[in-house]
Amino acid sequence: QVQLVESGGGLVQAGGSLRLSCAASGRTFRNLAMGWFRQAPGKEREFVAAIGRTGGTVDYTDSVKGRFAISRDNARNTMYLQMDSLKPEDTAVYYCAAKSAVISTFTYTRRSDYADWGQGTQVTVSS
Q1: Model confidence over 1-43: pLDDT tens digits?
Q2: Cα torsion for 49, 1, 44, 17, to the nearest 10°?
Q3: Which of 111, 117, 3, 101 is nearest to 52 (CA)?
Q4: What is the CA radius of gyration of the chain?
Q5: Which of 50, 59, 64, 97 has its CB 3.0 to 4.6 Å from that of 114, i.e. a possible disulfide?
Q6: Of the candidate ranges 61-70, 84-93, 101-110, the one whose mean pLDDT is the lowest
Q7: Mean pLDDT of all residues in the chain?
Q8: What is the pLDDT of residue 103?
Q9: Residues 18, 125: contact at Cβ < 8 Å?
């Protein structure tokens, strides 16, 4: 099992930036494909971004393309989500997720793909 701890959330004005971090422990980080999801009040948890084991492949939901950037540092066992040009509709609890992956280039976009989840960090964007 992987332990995941998110940090970096907070309150920011529209147009501002935040960087989320997800620290992993318990398994070999470089063997994990990782993802970010978010859940707004009254809505389903949705896919935001994903990254392959080596960081060479990434995927984003359309609404964040060009504004968010996912990355990872396998030496630090940490994944990041740089969020720029934030909008009020980005307000949600953001969760990181991990999945053991054999193929280094694969990214995973479905909630059901992931076995391990963090506790979430709140991001609030004011208008």
Answers
A1: 899 999 999 999 999 999 999 999 998 999 999 999 999 999 9
A2: -40
A3: 101
A4: 13
A5: 97
A6: 101-110
A7: 97
A8: 87
A9: no
pLDDT at 96 over 90: yes
Cα–Cα distances in angstroms (integers) from residue 63 to residues 4, 51, 53, 77, in the given order: 25, 17, 24, 27
Rounded mean pLDDT, 46-55: 97
Check: CB of residue 4 under 8 Å from CB of residue 78. no
- Tokens at 64, concatenated: 């964040």
Chain centroid to CA 48: how far?
7
Q: Nearest-CA neighbor of 70 among 84, 87, 85?
A: 84
- 104, pLDDT greater than 90: no
The Cα 19–Cα 24 span in angstroms is 16
CA nearest 110: which of 57, 24, 58, 46?
46
